[in-house]
């Protein structure tokens, strides 16, 4: 059992420091749900893109181990 297992976190953060903090919570067992803008998503999806037509490594690195939803 992890320290934060059973805890749900709504993640409204974007870019660097916020997603890093919520990722740490996810690593500790929290169920992190990333909330993104409809149609656009998190701006980091398109930053530092290495491979065309996929999410950037930057976005993937900051948001791994999280679920994601859009909310209008």
- Total beta strands: 3
Q: Could you give the distance between the termini? A: 35 Å
H/E order of the elements?
Answer: EHEHE
Main beta-sheet strand count, sense and barrel state: 3 strands, parallel
Continuous helix count: 2
**Which blocks of ≥5 consecutive residues have pLDDT under 50?**
none
- The share of residues in extended strands comes to 15-25%
* Shape field: globular
Could you say which structural class the secondary elements and strand pairing correspond to?
Answer: alpha/beta
Summarize the amount of helix as a percent range. 25-40%
> How many discrete structural domains?
1
State Rg: 12 Å
Report the average pLDDT across residues. Answer: 90
Largest sheet, spatial ordering of strands:
1-2-3
Provide the descriptors you would attach to this structure in a database record.
72 residues, 2 helices, CoA-Trfase_III_dom_1_sf, CoA-transferase activity, Formyl-CoA transferase
């Amino acid at each position: 059992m992890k320290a934060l297992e059973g805890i749900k976190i709504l993640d409204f953060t974007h870019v660097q420091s916020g997603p890093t903090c919520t990722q740490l919570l996810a690593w500790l067992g929290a169920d992190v749900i990333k909330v993104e803008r409809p149609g656009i998503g998190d701006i980091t999806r398109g930053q530092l893109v290495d491979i065309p037509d996929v999410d950037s490594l930057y976005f993937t690195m900051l948001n791994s181990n999280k679920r994601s939803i859009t909310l209008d």
